[in-house]
Amino acid sequence: MVASSCGIDTTKIETRLFINNEFVNSKSGKTLDCIDPATEKVICSVQEAGPEEVNAAVQAAKAAFDLGSPWRTMDGSARRDLLLRFADLLERDQDYLVRLEALDNGKPLGRHGQYGTAVDIGLVISTFRYFAGWADKLVGKTIPVDGSNFCYTRREPVGVCACIIPWNFPLTMFAWKLAPALCCGNTVVLKTSEKTPLTALHAAKLFQEAQFPAGVVNILSGYGPIGELMARHPDVDKVAFTGSTAVGHKIQQYAAESNLKTVSLELGGKSPMIVLDDANLEEAVSVANMSLFLNHGQCCCAGSRLYVQESIYDQFVAAAIAKAQAIKVGGAFEGDGDFDQGPQVDDIQFQRVMGYIEKGKKEGATVATGGERHGSKGYFIQPTVFTDVTDSMTIAQEEIFGPVLSILKFKTDAEVIERANLSKYGLAAGICSTNLPRALSMAHQLRAGTIWINTYNNFDPAAPFGGFKESGLGRDKGEDGLDIWLETKCVLMPIHGPKA
Q1: Which residues neighbour 280 within 8 Å (Cβ) at sequence distance 6 or greater?
Q2: Handedness of CA 308, 311, 317, 322 (dihedral sign)
Q3: How far, in Å, are 4, 8, 13, 215, 388 from residue 1 at the CA level?
Q4: Fewer beta carbons within 10 angstroms: which end of the chain, N or C?
């Protein structure tokens, strides 16, 4: 059937698993339903991977990484060209991917100047092109060791990499993992979230069309136990995971209990957004709004702890409430689609976020706006702002992953830095100030992997992203993002004759 509102023929959506350059059905015959979170209706059912498919995908990736294989012997410039060809195919299918991502995930389309899947898919394309440029520039060093010796290093791919990605930015996280992994010459088995598998499966068609060698990219749809099998598999050399901190702990455990494979993690956050008394108020309100409400609050780096200096607190809060109330909530394919906020991804997340809202009310925070379900169909939640929040409240400590903003008051810079750093997380932070030396000093004191000043959620493929503390290990994106996909090999040999 054709979902007329989005213009996608749902009978033609790719739903099979992608293993060794072929689309295959699950041997178990099991499928999982993809639900449109805006309507709560089934879009289609995709094949659910089981243990046999995990092993088949890993073995395909292992064979593709064998010495002498087409992928292993390929020059860096040829890998570059393959990645650029793939990026061109993504661009060709950009409109379809924008609509499919919105249908599967619930994001707005972002075609009226606001954030949405159009922004995401544009970043996906630029990420593949950025890392394509690194493929022929992975250099080692010559090292002047003592004695008559020649010493140099090589940067080599890790090998078979298991990538496990989340549902909040499906194709973006796909790009953050696959682009650098392939740029460095690794082979990949990627598991999508069971909530949002569809755009990755379409992208698999494009890897096939771009003529990547068989086994280099394998894509599985399935639930959490499949990720555990990948993380424990003895023929997997590395696991890269983006998701919750709780599962991140388990991924490290699985790697340790198997073959001590390399692990990189991009995990949860409870990021502080700090508004100083010298901030441009209008700009600060917009930045703070974007820091939390972008992607319906479903961001690991969401600025969900908003600290406002007491001298401007009342004025700022009034403006922040008005800004939240102006957010347009609706489905991507409802009317003209001119909405800022869509639904939460599924009923599990909807109930989780509503539970946190109730906790906030019970613990004494004030609902300044929102706090209820939006409408009666779909997993929509009203943009919610809490005031009178203290650091000890659950909504100020735990990652909510929804459109729920907590506003707290502070007096001094030293105080807010200490309070901001008390969290077990350290993924990101934001600062609004017109005094740049003051803001930079604060940025250097905050324990977080990314600090945004007078902006937020500003992503570029060249800028590294990752967390301190329980927000993760390693970095995605940028030159620093290459390190987690490479091993350093040292080669040393004696040189005969006089030292020169």
Answers
A1: 432, 434, 454
A2: negative
A3: 9, 9, 11, 33, 50
A4: C
What does the alpha-carbon distance between residue 349 and residue 355 come to, in Å, rounded to a whole number? 10
Distances, alpha carbon 250 to alpha carbons 77, 217, 221, 399, 428, in Å: 37, 25, 20, 18, 23
Q: Please tell me which residue in 300, 301, 399, 432 is annotated as part of the active site.
A: 300
Q: Is 266 annotated in the active site?
A: yes
Residue 26 in tokens: 């699950």
Residue 161 annotated to the active site:
no
Q: Which two tokens stand for residue 306?
A: 């908003």
Segment-wise mean pLDDT, segments of 10 residues, the chain, 500 residues:
72 97 98 97 98 98 98 98 98 98 96 92 98 98 95 98 98 98 98 98 98 98 97 98 97 97 97 98 98 97 98 98 97 91 97 98 98 97 98 97 98 98 98 98 98 97 98 98 98 88
User: What token pair was written down for 398?
Assistant: 């735990």
Q: Give CA–CA dist 434/75, Å, rounded.
A: 49
pTM of full prediction above 0.85: yes
CB-based burial of residue 416 (10 Å sphere; 0-12 exposed, 13-18 middle, 19+ buried)?
A: buried
d(CA 400, CA 341): 16
CA 184, CA 131: separation in Å to the nearest integer? 9
DSSP code, position 49: P
What are the tens digits of pLDDT across the range 20-49?
999 999 999 999 999 999 999 999 999 999
Distance CA 239, CA 225 (A): 14
User: 274-294 as b/e, with b when 16 or more CB fall inside 10 Å?
Assistant: bbbbebeeeebbbbbbbbbbb
Residues pairing with 22 in the sheet? 19
Is 412 within 8 Å of 434 (Cβ atoms)?
no
What is the reported pLDDT for 4?
A: 52
The Cα 102–Cα 124 span in angstroms is 15
Catalytic entry in 14, 266, 399, 470: 266
